[in-house]
């Protein structure tokens, strides 16, 4: 096993990709808020969560992921219809930014620990 192919590192990288795609979808919605023919887009993360949960996460109780829908692609936006509510989009953007920041800080911490292990220095 390669040191940078650990499951937790791959999971964090994938989460950063997903948050980036969500940010792009929100930015597209904000940019087209005044376009009356524009249909709001969102990304579907259920397939990403399902693929990760199938391969890397242990489910200790069958109720943990019960009722989740699967399908769709995290990289392709889907039309959800309706006008763009700028307040909702900005709130979604803030939540998405917090998630991205958290995942990037955790990934940085993992890389810092690997660096300390390799070099033998702790700062």
SSE order and pairing:
Elements: H1 7-31, E1 41-42, H2 46-55, E2 78-79, H3 86-119
Antiparallel strand pairs: 1-2
Helix pairs in contact: 1-3
Keywords:
mainly alpha, single chain, 123 residues
- The coarse overall form would be elongated
Which percent bin holds the helix content? 55-70%
Largest sheet geometry: 2 strands, antiparallel
**Distinct helical segment count:** 3
Explain this structure to me?
Helix 1 runs antiparallel to helix 3. About 55% of the residues lie in helices and about 5% in strands. It is mainly alpha-helical and about 120 residues long. It has one domain.
Short description:
The protein has helices at 7-31, 46-55, 86-119, and strands at 41-42, 78-79. With 123 residues, it is mainly α.
């Amino acid at each position: 096993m390669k040191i940078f192919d650990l499951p937790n590192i791959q999971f964090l990288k994938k989460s950063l990709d997903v948050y980036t795609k969500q940010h792009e979808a929100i930015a597209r919605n904000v940019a087209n808020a005044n376009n009356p023919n524009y249909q709001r887009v969102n990304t579907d993360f259920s397939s990403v969560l399902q693929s990760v949960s199938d391969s890397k996460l242990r489910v200790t109780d069958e109720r943990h992921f019960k009722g989740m829908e699967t399908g769709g692609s995290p990289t392709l936006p889907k039309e959800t219809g309706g006008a763009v509510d700028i307040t909702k989009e900005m709130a979604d953007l803030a939540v998405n930014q917090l998630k991205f920041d958290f995942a990037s800080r955790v990934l940085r911490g993992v890389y810092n620990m690997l660096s300390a292990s390799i070099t033998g220095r702790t700062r």
